[in-house]
Amino acid sequence: MDLTTSGIIFWIFGWSVVIGLVSFCFYKILTNKRGNKLEKNLN
Amino acid sequence: MSQDNSSREQWGSRIGLILAVAGNAIGLGNFLRFPVQAAQNGGGAFMIPYFVAFLLLGIPLMWIEWGIGRYGGKFKHGSAPGMFDVLWNHKLSKYLGATGLFISLTIMIYYTYIESWTLGYSIFSIFKMYFVETPNFENMKGFLHSYQGIQQGNGFDSIATAYVIMLVTFFINFFVLYKGISAGIEKLAKVAMPLLFIFAVILVVRVFTLGTPDPSKPEYSVWNGFAFIWNPDFSKLNDPKIWLAAAGQIFFTLSVGMGTIHAYASYLKPKDDIALSGLSTAATNEFAEVVLGGSIAIPVAVAFFGVATTQEVAQGGAFNLGFVSMPIIFQKLPLGEVFGFLWFLLLFFAGITSSVAMGQPIIAFLEDEFGFSRKKATIILAAFVLICVQFVVFFLEFGFLDEMDYWAGTFGLVVFALIETILFMWVFGADKAFAEINSGGDIKIPVIFKYIMKYVTPTILLIIMIWWLINDAIPTLMMKGVPDEKIPYILGARFMMLLILGLILFMIHLAWKNKQISKVEA
Description:
Chain A is mainly α.
């Protein structure tokens, strides 16, 4: 069983979706004004 | 009812909260169940129904549970009965919440024991205790069974070692729970989760550099392992079973339908973000599953055993892969004892961050509804779990654990998820629910998700529930194919579960009755 082109495409697809989503989420967390803080720490 | 949540415990930081909820979601299934499911259900093509289920079932349920949890927390409720009571002003609603307590408590009883095996195996790895001259499936199964006390002489003469390690695991779990939300659960997550990711990355790098371990067998290569997982079989997409398997995997992997996410979210303040935090939790879990979980056990198994044997191993289930196949592989790898140690400790971290989450709903219930101190609540829970786990430990070979896992850890999850979705999106109201989830949000959830959560998610849950009811639940209930000698133990497991459910229902009744008396007296 060799890794086929479609196998590589799905592999890249799967990883891209997940890595993209994680990157988006943590980028949003780290760049908004709230950052790592919860409400009680904001004031 | 009070909307002042300030007297309750609070999370220390946002990353700590996300790591704790992600730790709850990331469990043994990410590293053992997912690759098996992917390989058995169409390879790369499995990712299509998998991501569809993630979008239509996983993310919506995540937001629903965070939403219910934070909303319940406003009224000082950290468990499902109180939360459901404020969602639906009806005398029955709190009793529906019993499902959430029952599931998390029942799973905790057996999950902590399984988790202790991973701790034990990490010690056995570093001291090469299961290492033999010619490792094979037979002697590794023998080692596991002797450790579990099912048979003697293949490493252990009694169950004593397993029992002691189980007690150690219990102590760690309840110590973390006793320390509380920020000083216990959050601290654990901040240490265990980064270590889990570091260990997993080390193992993934080792897998990628394995190549073809035995040059005389060129087909036994790690790349063929990745081919086994990722080469798509599009014909399988026509099979509804594959779509249900994907939905089931998403469901299990995110640890939704257990009442644990609600408990964690209840310690948030009303204006804390849940939209982005919920999504981040789901994304972190998916990273651990698809990128890391999919790159260790199955590819390495194909590299050492070939595709045909790996298929057999996969059909034997996740434990077979984790506790039988992997130890054989570690014995064939240079520095295998170190990689074995990292693998099992990784699984232990994945397990403990989930099991403490399972304990939190009951502790919150005792604290919030009975006014118990955290110490008292933790001691009561520890004593109860310790009594119940004896049956799991000593009746393991008779299917006691499997029976609990089916009703609480499989079927029960869907039932609870369906109840909470209907209560939140239909009874509480989709507009109010969607506004609640978006309140304080650092991202704006697209409106389409309101309709997905109201119509699509409960429909999928209903389909899964009916499918499982017909195909699994009824045959399991009727004990089809169960050997006669196991029947008394299966019935015993059911009796214990009914007792747990009955006790929870009684305590809910008592808590609300006490509240009414206090109200009248005031």
